[in-house]
Design goal:
Layout: H1 16-26, E1 29-30, H2 40-48, H3 54-63, E2 67-71, E3 75-79, H4 83-101, H5 117-131, H6 143-148, H7 159-168, E4 172-178, E5 181-186, H8 193-196, H9 203-218, E6 220-221, H10 223-230, H11 235-245, E7 251-255, E8 264-268, H12 272-275, E9 286-288, H13 299-306, E10 328-332, E11 335-345, E12 350-358, H14 366-383, E13 387-390
Parallel strand pairs: 12-13
Antiparallel strand pairs: 1-3, 2-3, 4-5, 6-8, 7-8, 9-10, 10-11, 11-12
């Protein structure tokens, strides 16, 4: 929890530099399109500091360029100083995606002649180079183009795939979001020169960086957890790195499991046990976590360390859901005590609570009820809602 920024005082004033330091500590902040309350990245950051300002994040991304958007295991905001390490990912992505997407052969409107993959990518990149920031919908066919037969390949609308390919492989960058739609531009116009022109890293150096930085953010981990953190290397590479560095750089420790499973042998830095005496206790307050919070992203590790079994049920048919479409875990101190189903309804200016499920042996005492009410009031204020509404029968068994 300390490594994930959850032992900080959540009410301490935070400026833009503090926010940048927090994101650097986390390594990245995952993004997601669902907004039942607020976007995932905003909720992740708010859970750690209630003075978090969306405008500070926008400035870090769009003006200061201290963060860039790219892929880890999903779309994420990442410190720009890490950009040189993404070159390795660009190469891997190009090899993988070229095989998957090169079958794309949209037809010209006139004559039905197919355009090759390379020509398609060149045309899309050329459009961005000439016109600047571009959304996928900017490349859809215009009526005049359809009538004249010019630029007819837009009619098939391969633009989204082409833009994504060029983004994933480092030819384009996301310069900002329009609503939640990506807006792309040339990397040379988005990523600062120092980051783009930084020293290139060998595959071995990249593995060393990926494993070492993952371990520093997890505190302790198995080789598989190290590989999964950035989703940049495979399990064999992480396992080899652990074996190579065991001894002077790494020690093996046993981590007891909270779910009753056998203790797990993990890797850690030699100084970890000494550092534990200096760790701050997590705040006792109750906090709502995003389903994509880094503390809970690895569901197996979550179950092992916190005895909390969690999954998102958005893809589960409604009749088969245990809880709800998009429920949020509840963190109290160092315990995950339950989950809550809530939604911001902007038509009546309220944050509606429709379901609350507490873990076994966790009681909805007056004190806990007051802490939850205070947290929801903070959330309502954060998202601009005037009040919290508790739906009848919200407390579930």
């Amino acid at each position: 929890m300390a490594r994930q920024g959850l032992c900080r005082a959540p009410g301490k004033a935070q400026d833009k530099d503090d926010l940048a330091a927090l994101i650097h500590q986390l390594g990245f902040v995952q993004m997601d399109s669902i907004r039942t309350v607020e976007r995932a990245h905003h909720m992740i950051l708010f859970a750690r500091n209630q003075t978090y300002k969306l405008e500070h994040l926008r400035q870090l991304v769009e003006e200061d360029r201290r963060l860039f958007e790219h892929w880890t295991h999903d779309a994420a905001l990442i410190p720009t100083e890490f950009y040189p390490h993404w070159r390795h990912r660009f190469v891997l992505a190009e090899d993988r995606l070229r095989k998957r997407w090169r079958k794309i052969r949209p037809k010209q409107a006139a004559g039905g002649k197919a355009i090759g993959f390379e020509d398609l990518m060149a045309q899309v990149k050329g459009h961005v180079e000439q016109n600047g920031p571009t959304r996928s919908r900017d490349l859809k066919a215009k009526d005049s183009a359809r009538k004249s037969g010019k630029n007819g390949w837009w009619q098939w609308h391969p633009a989204k795939t082409a833009l994504e390919f060029l983004w994933r492989t480092g030819e384009l960058s996301v310069c900002h979001r329009d609503g939640f739609q990506k807006v792309y531009d040339l990397c040379t116009r988005v990523i600062p020169d120092g980051a783009r022109q930084g020293a290139k890293h060998s595959p071995e150096d990249f593995v060393d960086w990926a494993c070492g930085n993952a371990l520093d953010r997890l505190g302790f981990a198995t080789s598989g957890e190290l590989a999964a953190y950035w989703a940049s290397i495979n399990a064999a590479e992480a396992k080899a790195w652990c074996a190579q560095n065991l001894g002077e750089q790494l020690i093996e420790i046993q981590i007891e499991s909270a779910d009753g499973s056998p203790a797990k042998v993990c890797l850690a830095r030699p100084g970890l046990l000494d550092d534990m005496d200096n760790l701050a206790e997590p705040p006792d307050r109750l906090r709502v976590l995003s389903p994509f919070d880094p503390l809970i992203r690895d569901r197996k590790r979550l179950l092992r360390l916190f005895n909390f079994d969690y999954r998102i049920e958005i893809f589960v048919p409604e009749a088969r859901r245990t809880y709800g479409y998009y429920v949020f875990p509840l963190l109290e101190g160092d315990r995950l005590i339950g989950r809550i189903d809530m939604k911001a309804r902007r038509d009546d200016d309220a944050l509606h609570v429709t379901g609350l499920w507490l873990e076994p042996k966790v009681k909805f005492s007056k004190g806990r009820e007051a802490k939850l009410a205070a947290e929801l009031k903070r959330h309502a204020k954060f998202i601009g809602m005037a009040r919290v509404m508790w739906e009848p029968g919200f407390l579930k068994t």
